[in-house]
Amino acid sequence: MPEIKIINPGGDYSEAMKVRYTVFVEEQGVPFENEADEYDKIAYHAVMLNADKAIGCGRIYFKNDYAKLGRVAVLPEYRRKGHALKICGELINIAAAHDIKNIILHSQSYIVPLYEKLGFKCVGDEFLEENIPHFKMELTL
């Protein structure tokens, strides 16, 4: 049974990066140098483990009066099993525990229905991020 490990800001999130590079860089073609950013060090990272193997991840960080959820990824062979929903749920709980009321994210267009299941709503028009169609989405807790 997969379990989720939370890495606090400043902790070792290398397991999350392995999943992100596999999904975003190798599978989706995001340039290697664009995958990591300055927010990784201040974010809470959720890593889903299956028998000690990282199979999924996501992160959330706080900025002003909102949280930004993102970098949610699940390895291809583990998709469509509810893992991304569980990862996001854990990250949303972290925001709630910090009394954050507003969460935003940039969803790849094809996965919008997943975030809608969590209560997120699209805001604005579709846009390109790393040449991939996205929508900005918001959730008010």
Q: Rg, please?
A: 14 Å
CATH architecture: 3-Layer(aba) Sandwich
CATH superfamily: Gcn5-related N-acetyltransferase (GNAT)
**Strand percentage:** 35-45%
**CATH topology heading:** Aminopeptidase
Strand order of the largest sheet: 1-2-3-4-5-7-6
- Spell the H/E element sequence: EHHEEEHEHEE
Summarize the main sheet.
7 strands, mixed
Overall number of strands = 7
**Tally of DSSP helical segments:** 4
Q: Which structural class fits the helix and strand makeup?
A: alpha+beta
Question: What is the total number of structural domains?
Answer: 1
Low-confidence stretches: none
Return the CATH class: Alpha Beta
Instruction: Report the span from N to C terminus.
Output: 29 Å
Fraction of helical residues: 25-40%
Rough outline: globular
Average pLDDT works out at 96
